[in-house]
Design goal:
The complex is a heterodimer of chains A (423) and B (227). Chain A has 423 residues and is α/β, with parallel strands linked by helices. Chain A is built from 17 helices and 11 strands. Chain A has helices spanning 21-26, 31-37, 41-51, 63-68, 92-99, 101-115, 129-144, 175-182, 211-223, 225-229, 262-269, 303-308, 327-341, 347-365, 370-383, 391-405, 407-422, and strands at residues 78-83, 119-124, 160-165, 206-210, 232-233, 236-237, 239-246, 252-257, 279-283, 292-293, 317-322. In chain A, the strands form 3 sheets. Chain A has a 5-stranded mixed β-sheet, sandwiched between helices. The chains are: A alpha/beta (423), B alpha+beta (227).
Chain lengths: 423, 227
């Protein structure tokens, strides 16, 4: 594991029966919870802030600071675990929840202590039925063991935990769309501010964290925030579970120390493209991230370096595409996905995703001119920043980057189609 | 076309036209079905169903009431209630929605607005088995579109299996993959597609050795490094 460093979240992941509370406890589970409950709420937040942990769901917001935003006081406060993992290319939370559900529950109770929440929910995407069953069983075990419920382990903290299953909508991974969905509505995002920390679920203060973020918290409490911050690089501390898929020989989840060269993840861990093929482009952080090319393979895999390279770490999902795949196919698949998933609330996203698909189809059919590429690029610019949430941006950024980086290929395609129709 | 006369709900024709080719959408490609169809101004909106007039199966009622008791606000049970009604009736039929609305004390229109938003609610009669084929980026790079065609040929238009293209199911490590009655299998080859349909029709667990649950983490299968 020299390429990846010592794993935290995946350390025991294939231990048989890890989803059983007895096995989890035998491997040191729920120790961090006891330690955290003996600390004050502020001390837990201080450890999280010292760790430098940034959210693992996509936005990368500092997790400690987020927990500190919740108002103090005696009202109902909510913690929501975002397990609606739907970003194309991402499958880390699925494997983590399936194999180590108690680590998630432990993280949830620690985060609830940090935020002062008394009701917790896990919003899991509806397609993850097997994982939901495993989590439900684990929650029942944790409740029986006194890790969830009234006055947990004799402390002041009381917490209920409910597993809520979605029903198939990417937008419900957006935090305010998720809240509407959890309230039993269509999953339309809300106008921000007010931010969920002040007015979220049922209009109450709400802390929303990704599965992997929460599962990291027990490790931070165990090893201490300062020690955790020594892992990774400045600005991107710790380890990250990266989902690698596409044209690689060993697709799967790998836990890495942030800041290692991307090449190491794609080639040393995931085995690189099949023999005889080369990396043409890759999404570094799910399908919403602007694409990078073979020239960017040495970019360190961390939040700031990927941002500097013009992309983002996002959910930590690398999709590798080899040199035998036309970029137009990827652009069409990507755009169609966002068209399908746009909730329809904001015009630039609803119409922009639809237009983009139509224009890409025109290019594919040979009805386009090079000017259409400029129009399509400008449509992308008009989506970005003009909607309540970033779903539209999440299409505009990768499509915009594909047009910018592979313009020659798009133009060649348009030209060859026109020539063949003349002949 | 007069609304409501096709019996298939909003966007019915378009969904039929696209059936099998595309992930079903409403006509203009977003999650708001029906906005481009005229409203029937003659019709009064349906009210919260009268308990005395709607016959709800006791098991379904118990399941929905249990779901409502889990949340601080009973409206949060909309998704579990619709799922329970769908499981009971085979799809989110108008009757299924009416029964769920009756127990939840909301209008059928409210639950219809919710059901039409989410891909996992079947708005047309569905088969005994559902097979979702992920046709998103990674799976299509590894042959998902061809897999879909093979499965379609094997299903051969019969209604016992509802075959659907689906957006990323979060299992790109086993691409191309399918979710059969919400259990994940992959990666599937040509032979597996035919076997899958055969196994389902014979009442066996389909392609059991390809079940996701059996797989170890990729990191644990790395070639041993030399020390």
């Amino acid at each position: 594991m020299s390429a990846a460093g010592k794993p935290l979240l995946l350390a025991d992941i294939d231990e048989p029966g890890l989803n059983d509370i007895a096995v989890y406890e035998r491997r040191g589970g729920y120790k961090a919870l006891r330690k955290a409950l003996a600390m004050t709420q502020d001390a837990v937040i201080a450890e999280l802030e010292a760790s430098g942990l940034r959210g693992r769901g996509g936005a990368g917001f500092p997790a400690g600071r987020k927990a500190s935003f919740l108002p103090k006081g005696d009202m109902d406060k909510y913690l929501v675990c975002n397990a609606d993992e739907s970003e194309p290319g991402t499958f880390k939370d699925r494997e983590l929840m399936q194999k180590s559900p108690h680590m998630l529950i432990e993280g949830i109770v620690i985060a609830a202590h940090a935020g002062g929440a008394n009701h917790a929910f896990i919003y899991i995407r509806g397609e993850y039925e097997e994982q939901a069953r495993i989590l439900d069983a684990a929650i029942a075990q944790a409740r029986a063991a006194g890790y969830i419920g009234r006055r947990i382990l004799g402390s002041e903290l009381s917490l209920s935990l409910v597993l809520h299953r979605g029903a198939g909508a990417y937008i419900c991974g957006e935090e305010t769309g998720l809240l509407d969905s959890l309230e039993g509505k269509r999953g339309n995002p809300r106008l921000k501010p007010p931010f969920p920390a002040l007015q979220g679920l049922y209009q109450g203060p709400t802390l929303i964290n990704n599965v992997e973020t929460l599962m990291t918290m027990p490790h931070i409490i165990n090893m201490g925030g300062k020690n955790y911050a020594k892992l990774g690089v400045s600005g991107s501390s710790g380890t990250k579970v990266v989902s690698v898929s596409g044209h690689v020989q060993r697709p799967g989840n790998y836990e890495i120390e942030l800041g290692i060269p991307s090449r190491q993840i794609i080639f040393d861990l995931a085995g690189g493209p099949p023999p005889g093929r080369k990396v043409k482009l890759w999404f570094p952080g799910g399908s919403s991230a602007p694409v990078l090319t073979a020239q960017d393979l040495d970019v360190p895999y961390d939040f700031d370096s990927l941002a500097k390279a013009g992309s983002m770490l996002g959910s930590g999902a690398i999709i590798v595409i080899d040199d035998q795949t036309p970029v137009l196919d990827i652009a069409l698949k990507t755009a169609k996905f966002y068209r399908h998933e746009s909730c329809g609330k904001c015009t630039p996203c609803r119409e922009g995703t639809n237009w983009t698909v139509k224009m890409l189809e025109r290019i594919e059919a040979g009805d386009a001119t090079p000017m259409d590429l400029d129009i399509m690029a400008s449509v992308q610019e008009h989506i970005i920043g003009n909607c309540l949430c970033v779903l539209g941006d999440a299409m505009a950024m990768p499509i915009g980057s594909m047009i910018a980086k592979f313009r020659d290929e798009f133009e060649a395609h348009i030209e060859s189609r026109q020539l063949s129709s003349v002949a | 076309m007069t609304p409501g006369t096709d019996g298939g709900g909003p966007g019915f024709e378009y969904r039929q036209e696209l059936a099998g080719r595309e992930i079903p959408r409403s006509r203009h490609g977003s999650r708001t079905p029906g906005w481009d169809e005229p409203a029937d101004l003659e019709k009064d909106p349906a009210e919260v169903p009268d308990r005395a007039l709607v016959d709800v199966p006791p098991e379904l009622r118990a399941e929905i009431e249990e779901a409502m008791s889990r949340y601080p606000d009973r409206h949060s049970a909309a998704l579990p209630a619709l799922r329970a009604a769908q499981d009971h009736h085979g799809w989110c039929s108008p009757q299924a929605i009416l029964e769920a609305a009756c127990v939840m004390r909301v209008t059928p229109g409210y639950l219809t607005s919710v059901a039409t938003f989410y891909d996992m609610f079947e708005l047309e009669p569905a088969g005994e088995h559902t097979v979702y084929v992920c046709t998103n980026i990674t799976c299509s790079l590894r042959g998902a579109d061809e897999l879909y065609d093979l499965l379609e040929a094997a299903v051969n238009g019969e209604s016992d299996i509802t075959l659907r293209r689906f957006e990323c199911l979060g299992a790109c490590d086993i691409a191309p993959m399918v979710s059969v009655d919400h259990v994940y299998y992959g990666p599937l080859g040509e032979v597996d597609a035919k076997r899958l349909v055969g196994d389902l029709r014979a009442g066996r667990e389909p392609i059991p050795e390809l079940a996701l649950a059996l797989r170890a983490t990729a990191a644990s299968e790395l070639p041993q490094e030399q020390t």
